Amino acid sequence: MNEQSVMTALALERKRYTALTEVMELTEELSQAFQRQDQVSVQMFLRMRQEPVNQLREYQALERKQQAELSEADAQSLRELLSGKGMGQTPQAQSLARLAGQNRALLERVIRADRQISVKLGGKKSFYTQQKRTP
Protein backbone atom coordinates (compact mmCIF):
# COMPACT_ATOMS: atom_id res chain seq x y z
CA MET A 1 0.00 0.00 0.00
CA ASN A 2 1.42 3.38 -0.94
CA GLU A 3 2.17 6.11 1.55
CA GLN A 4 -0.50 8.44 0.14
CA SER A 5 -3.21 5.87 0.93
CA VAL A 6 -1.91 5.54 4.48
CA MET A 7 -1.78 9.31 4.95
CA THR A 8 -5.33 9.70 3.59
CA ALA A 9 -6.59 7.02 5.99
CA LEU A 10 -4.64 8.60 8.87
CA ALA A 11 -6.22 12.01 8.19
CA LEU A 12 -9.64 10.38 8.15
CA GLU A 13 -8.96 8.57 11.45
CA ARG A 14 -7.92 11.89 13.02
CA LYS A 15 -11.22 13.43 11.94
CA ARG A 16 -13.03 10.37 13.28
CA TYR A 17 -11.24 10.79 16.64
CA THR A 18 -12.34 14.42 16.84
CA ALA A 19 -15.96 13.51 16.08
CA LEU A 20 -15.93 10.58 18.53
CA THR A 21 -14.52 12.82 21.25
CA GLU A 22 -17.29 15.33 20.60
CA VAL A 23 -19.94 12.59 20.72
CA MET A 24 -18.47 11.30 24.00
CA GLU A 25 -18.47 14.76 25.58
CA LEU A 26 -22.04 15.44 24.47
CA THR A 27 -23.12 12.01 25.70
CA GLU A 28 -21.64 12.78 29.13
CA GLU A 29 -23.46 16.13 29.15
CA LEU A 30 -26.64 14.33 28.11
CA SER A 31 -26.25 11.87 30.97
CA GLN A 32 -25.80 14.70 33.47
CA ALA A 33 -28.86 16.53 32.12
CA PHE A 34 -30.89 13.33 32.41
CA GLN A 35 -29.77 12.85 36.02
CA ARG A 36 -30.86 16.42 36.77
CA GLN A 37 -34.17 15.66 35.03
CA ASP A 38 -33.58 18.69 32.80
CA GLN A 39 -35.68 17.73 29.78
CA VAL A 40 -34.84 20.88 27.82
CA SER A 41 -31.11 20.14 28.09
CA VAL A 42 -31.69 16.45 27.31
CA GLN A 43 -33.41 17.40 24.05
CA MET A 44 -30.72 19.97 23.26
CA PHE A 45 -27.87 17.47 23.76
CA LEU A 46 -29.67 14.83 21.72
CA ARG A 47 -29.91 17.29 18.82
CA MET A 48 -26.33 18.45 19.27
CA ARG A 49 -25.01 14.88 19.15
CA GLN A 50 -26.58 14.30 15.76
CA GLU A 51 -24.07 16.47 13.86
CA PRO A 52 -20.92 14.57 14.93
CA VAL A 53 -22.79 11.27 14.47
CA ASN A 54 -23.55 12.34 10.90
CA GLN A 55 -19.89 13.24 10.44
CA LEU A 56 -18.91 9.76 11.61
CA ARG A 57 -21.23 8.24 9.01
CA GLU A 58 -19.65 10.42 6.35
CA TYR A 59 -16.16 9.35 7.40
CA GLN A 60 -17.22 5.72 7.25
CA ALA A 61 -18.50 6.25 3.70
CA LEU A 62 -15.23 7.94 2.72
CA GLU A 63 -13.30 5.02 4.21
CA ARG A 64 -15.33 2.56 2.12
CA LYS A 65 -14.76 4.69 -0.98
CA GLN A 66 -11.02 4.79 -0.36
CA GLN A 67 -10.90 1.02 0.05
CA ALA A 68 -12.92 0.52 -3.14
CA GLU A 69 -10.38 2.59 -5.08
CA LEU A 70 -7.44 0.48 -3.87
CA SER A 71 -6.29 -2.85 -5.23
CA GLU A 72 -7.76 -5.82 -3.37
CA ALA A 73 -4.42 -6.48 -1.63
CA ASP A 74 -4.02 -2.84 -0.56
CA ALA A 75 -7.64 -2.64 0.58
CA GLN A 76 -7.12 -5.78 2.67
CA SER A 77 -3.95 -4.31 4.20
CA LEU A 78 -5.82 -1.13 5.07
CA ARG A 79 -8.72 -3.08 6.61
CA GLU A 80 -6.20 -5.01 8.73
CA LEU A 81 -4.61 -1.79 9.97
CA LEU A 82 -8.00 -0.27 10.78
CA SER A 83 -9.34 -3.39 12.49
CA GLY A 84 -6.30 -4.02 14.68
CA LYS A 85 -5.26 -7.16 12.84
CA GLY A 86 -2.12 -5.57 11.43
CA MET A 87 0.49 -3.08 12.65
CA GLY A 88 2.02 -1.86 9.40
CA GLN A 89 5.58 -1.63 8.17
CA THR A 90 6.09 2.14 8.15
CA PRO A 91 5.87 4.64 10.99
CA GLN A 92 2.81 6.21 9.33
CA ALA A 93 1.07 2.83 9.03
CA GLN A 94 1.88 2.11 12.67
CA SER A 95 0.43 5.51 13.66
CA LEU A 96 -2.69 4.67 11.67
CA ALA A 97 -3.06 1.32 13.44
CA ARG A 98 -2.61 2.95 16.87
CA LEU A 99 -5.10 5.73 16.17
CA ALA A 100 -7.63 3.26 14.75
CA GLY A 101 -7.26 1.26 17.98
CA GLN A 102 -7.85 4.36 20.07
CA ASN A 103 -10.92 5.15 17.98
CA ARG A 104 -12.31 1.64 18.46
CA ALA A 105 -11.82 1.94 22.24
CA LEU A 106 -13.44 5.38 22.30
CA LEU A 107 -16.34 4.11 20.20
CA GLU A 108 -16.90 1.30 22.72
CA ARG A 109 -17.00 3.87 25.54
CA VAL A 110 -19.52 5.94 23.58
CA ILE A 111 -21.68 2.87 22.94
CA ARG A 112 -21.64 1.86 26.62
CA ALA A 113 -22.59 5.37 27.75
CA ASP A 114 -25.24 5.65 25.05
CA ARG A 115 -26.68 2.26 26.02
CA GLN A 116 -27.05 3.36 29.65
CA ILE A 117 -28.80 6.58 28.69
CA SER A 118 -30.99 4.92 26.08
CA VAL A 119 -32.21 2.25 28.48
CA LYS A 120 -32.96 4.89 31.12
CA LEU A 121 -34.77 7.14 28.65
CA GLY A 122 -36.59 4.52 26.61
CA GLY A 123 -36.95 1.57 28.96
CA LYS A 124 -38.43 -1.33 27.00
CA LYS A 125 -38.62 0.86 23.90
CA SER A 126 -34.86 1.49 23.97
CA PHE A 127 -32.92 0.60 20.85
CA TYR A 128 -30.62 -1.57 22.94
CA THR A 129 -33.45 -3.40 24.70
CA GLN A 130 -35.09 -4.14 21.35
CA GLN A 131 -31.79 -5.45 19.99
CA LYS A 132 -31.64 -8.07 22.75
CA ARG A 133 -35.06 -9.41 21.80
CA THR A 134 -34.24 -9.75 18.11
CA PRO A 135 -33.02 -13.30 17.33
* Parts with pLDDT < 50 across at least 5 consecutive residues: none
The end-to-end distance, rounded to whole angstroms, is 40 Å
Rounded average pLDDT: 92
CA-based gyration radius:
18 Å
- The proportion of residues forming helix, as a percent range, comes to over 70%
Number of domains: 1
Task: Find the count of extended strands (DSSP E, 2+ residues).
Answer: 0
What is the N-to-C succession of helices and strands?
HHHHH
The largest sheet is: none
Which percent band covers the strand fraction? under 5%
Which outline best applies?
Answer: elongated
Characterize the quaternary organization of these chains.
single chain
Q: What structural class do helix, strand and pairing data support?
A: mainly alpha
Summed up:
This protein is an all-alpha fold and 135 residues long. The chain has helices at residues 3-35, 39-69, 72-83, 91-122, 127-133. The protein is 85% helix and 0% strand.
Task: Describe the model.
This protein is an all-alpha fold and 135 residues long. It has one domain (3-133). It is built from five helices and no strands. The longest helix has 33 residues, at 3-35. The model has no long low-confidence stretch (mean pLDDT 92).
